[in-house]
Amino acid sequence: MTAARDSDPIDHDSLRHSLNETPYCRALGVVVESIDEKGVRIALPFADQNANPGNALHGGCAASLAAIGSRAVARTALAADSGPWVLGQLQVNYLSAAIGEDVVADARLQRRGRTLCFVETSIATRDGKAIASATAVVRARCEGKASALRRSSLPTTFGDEGGDNAGPLAPILEKAAFMAARGMRIENMENGISRVTMPESEANAAEDGRQHDGAILALLDTAGAMAAWSEAGPAAWKASTASIHAQSLAPPPRGAVVAYSRCIHRDREMYWCDTEVVDPTTEQVTTRGTVFYRLAE
């Protein structure tokens, strides 16, 4: 049995307006198509700035749609005053590539508790080709209690040794449309490790001015991919993210962020890369996860 709400849920029109006015959503081109008690449907028309070379949708866009949809579902299901709403965990499995195509994300409520919502999101092209499948646990932190949380309890990053060898691929990869739009910079990429930074910008911002959790997920995905590339070395690889698993330990920080990733294991063409997104002013981890990446001949 689901728990009773402490107050009324958020008005659907207010939520639609909120999503439409979020800078990161505007930067991606997100369109809210429907909101009801059971779920949220959002569309992402194809745009060059969301693509990798070859017009393939960047994996960070699919993860962002899952994050946006999951949090929107939680906001429709939980009390309007229970926020902020953050992604406790998110698992995204990438099923196929969207090449120069519009995609649609359907986020559906699986179960609601008093402070937790379990959400499933399917992402597909307009003609029904499955692109990604995601599950999320969204947590309502409740403003009164959130202000008392001790950020000092957050773990500090495993970091790196401060290397600055970005390697020959970095200048090429940084020009990819989606990475360039986020302002990502590869600072270190060698021997199975990577360090990627992302600045504070309007195009990466949530409603409250913090980094949007979709942008954070995109950075996590990118840093993991760079660690895999640095382990494999330059070659004519067929590259793709197979899956990401992310945990948000705290709301994303304000200001610039840095992601550290290290390849902890490889098996033929598959790479497991542990990744942390860090507030560089405190060296505390706010999001962590594993990127399961494929580089095939």
Walk me through the topology.
Blueprint: H1 12-21, H2 23-28, E1 31-35, E2 39-44, H3 59-77, E3 85-94, E4 103-112, E5 116-125, E6 130-140, H4 143-146, H5 170-173, H6 177-182, E7 185-190, E8 193-198, H7 213-232, E9 238-248, E10 257-267, E11 270-279, E12 284-296
Antiparallel strand pairs: 1-2, 2-4, 3-6, 3-9, 4-5, 5-6, 7-8, 8-10, 9-12, 10-11, 11-12
Helix pairs in contact: 3-7
Radius of gyration: 18 Å
Determine the mean pLDDT: 90
- Helix-residue proportion: 10-25%
Order of helices and strands: HHEEHEEEEHHHEEHEEEE
**At CATH's second level, what is the architecture of the largest domain?**
Roll
Number of strands: 12
Estimate the global geometry from the Cα principal axes.
globular
* Structural class assignment: alpha+beta
CATH fold-level name of the largest domain: Thiol Ester Dehydrase, Chain A
Q: State the distance separating the first and last CA atoms.
A: 50 Å
Strand content: 35-45%
Low-confidence stretches: 1-6
Strand order of the largest sheet: 1-2-4-5-6-3-9-12-11-10-8-7
- Count of all domains: 2
Largest sheet: 12 strands, antiparallel
Q: Tell me the name of the CATH class of the largest domain.
A: Alpha Beta
CATH-level-4 superfamily name of the largest domain: Hotdog Thioesterase
